[in-house]
Each structure stands twice: as structure tokens, then as C-alpha cells.
Amino acid sequence: MITEYLQFIARTFRIYDGVIPSIEKVLSKTGSDSIVDLCSGASGPWSHLLRHTDRIDVVLTDKYPNLASFERISADSGGRISFSRDSVDATDVPEKYDGMRTIFTGLHHFHPEPARKILQDAAEKGRAIGIFEFTEHSLPAILSALLGIPLMVLLFTPFITPFKLSRLFWTYIIPVTPLLIMWDGVISDLRTYSVAELRDLVSPIKTENYSWEIGKQKSGVLGINITYLIGCPDKQA
């Protein structure tokens, strides 16, 4: 329920559209057109984001892959989105998955040590990585989750695909879903790494010829703050 709602919101409000130029810049630098999306959940935002670029192909992965969702998204992508049926651990990604790694709205699920391992694994294997979070550890974000999420769930649930009667039941008859998604939003905001905390995560990673960029940018029709971390191998002379 939660992942389907997040996917709908990301697509409807174009939450991550603004990060595509940064991703394309990294791909140009590394000479790749491939994305390995980690922690994809129900597929993440890529089914929408690919409409804004002609050059990128994506492989969806997850430790617990949602194969039904992956198959549906892949079939609708015109061959641009594929997926792994295997469990893929973001802290130790097999070498066969070549390309820039991305995680959308996912790093906050990891405590600092495994989060650092995700970043270190990318650096040590010479892979670029992009972390993007629209959640934010701030009072306005937390208040927005508390007050805004239940209303948005009530408004948008009939439009979420695939349509499910059970989703309507748990939203309008017994309103468990709005409360669950609100709670998840608040916890996600509280757990989201700040720019300073992301810098602390990468500071012990001493891989040579590898650079990090960390910051915030506005994105989407609502101008939401996206916290980002991008790691990329340096060009060799």
C-alpha cells in the first residue's frame, strides 16, 4: 500500500524530475547509459522519469523483489526497464550489475553503518551512485506529513493503479491506510539523513579517484527540497 502510494505521488507531482540532469551528467562522465536502481520497492519513479530522457535504460532490483510490479512496469516500458528476479543486497551489489546505481526515498531505511556500506560498495567497485530523498528531517516536513498525508490519501486513493477494492475498503470504510501512510511519512522524515549527516557517512570512505557531491535542490511541481548525494569515479588522464 505504502509503496504504491509513494509511486503515485512521485509521478503525479513529478517529485524527482529535477534530478534527471544530474543523473545524465554522471552518465556522460562515466560513459554509461545504464541505471541499476537499488531498493526499488514497487518500481520507484523510473517508469515516469524515463519520459524525460531518451538515453537511459534501467534495471530494477531489490532485496525482496516485487516481481508482479516489476513485470508490469517492464512490460509497459517498451524494453527500457528490465528487472532482476534475484535478491540484490544494496550493501554488496554483484559485479554483473554495471551502471550508475540509484536509490530513491530509500537510504533513510538504513542505519548509518549499512548506509555507509552501500556507498562504500559503490566506491570500491568503481560505480557511480545517486541517492535522492524527498523526505526531510525538519519541522515543516513533519507537520506536512501529519496534516497533509491523510488528506492526500483520501483524495488520491481512487486514482492509484492497479485499482483494488481492498485499497478502498482500508481507506474509506476502515481508514487504516491514511494512518499507516501518515505514520510512515513522519518516521521517514525523522530518519532522513541531513546534508551534514551524509557528509559524515562518506568521510571515512577513502577510495582514491572517487568524488562525492552532497546538497539540496528544488524539484517537481511543488518545488520540494530533494536531498541528494552523488558519488562518481573521477576521470582518469
UniProtKB/TrEMBL annotation:
Swiss-Prot/TrEMBL keywords: Membrane, Transmembrane, Transmembrane helix
Membrane-spanning segments: 141-163, 169-187
Top-rank taxon, per record: Bacteria
Keyword Transmembrane helix (UniProt): yes
Name of protein: Methyltransferase domain-containing protein
